Amino acid sequence: MRGTVAAEAAVGSGGGGGAAGLARAAGVTVGLSIAGSVLGLARDQAIAHLFGAGAESDAFLVAWTVPEVAATVLIEDAMALLMVPAFSAALARGAGTGDVVRGTLPRLLALLGVLSAALVAGAPQMVDVLAPGLADPSAAVACTRLTAVSVFTFGLAGYLSAALRAHRRFLPPAAIYVAYNVGIVATLLALHGRYGIRAAAAGVAVGGILMVAVQLPSALVELRGNRPALDTQAPPTRGLGLALLAPVVLFTVSRQAQVLVERFFAAPLAAGAISHLNYAQKVAQLPMALSVMICTVTFPAVSRALAEGDRDRARRRVERDLALVCVVVLIGSAYVIACAPQITEVLFQRGEFTAADTAATASVMRVYALGLLGQSLVGALVRPYFSTGRPTWYPAAAMAVGLLVTAVADAAAVGRWGAYGIAAGNAAGITLTAGLLLRGLGAHSLAVRARTIAPGLARTVLAAAAATPAGALVAARAPGALAAVVGCAAVVPAVFALAAFVLRVPELPYLLATVTRKAADDR
Question: Residue 9: enclosing H or E segment and its boundaries?
Answer without folding.
Answer: helix 2-14
